[in-house]
Design brief:
single chain, 61 residues
């Protein structure tokens, strides 16, 4: 998943993630330029997924 793909659909993907995982907050899903890896790291910890699993999850939304 590259930055352009993430930024382009992030609002839609964020909503779907919140539906699937009620424990996620807006702060968990806040995308800030240059901090994509930090955000994805937080999601990995909170959801208990590997980097690959998380990328596949987001790509499949």
């Amino acid at each position: 998943m590259n930055t352009t793909e993430l930024k382009g659909n992030w609002t839609e993907q964020k909503g779907k993630l919140k539906q699937l995982y009620a424990q996620l907050t807006d702060n968990d899903l806040m995308y800030v330029d240059g901090k994509k890896d930090e955000m994805l790291g937080k999601l990995q910890i909170k959801l208990g997924k590997t980097k690959k699993e998380l990328a596949e999850l987001i790509a499949g939304l």
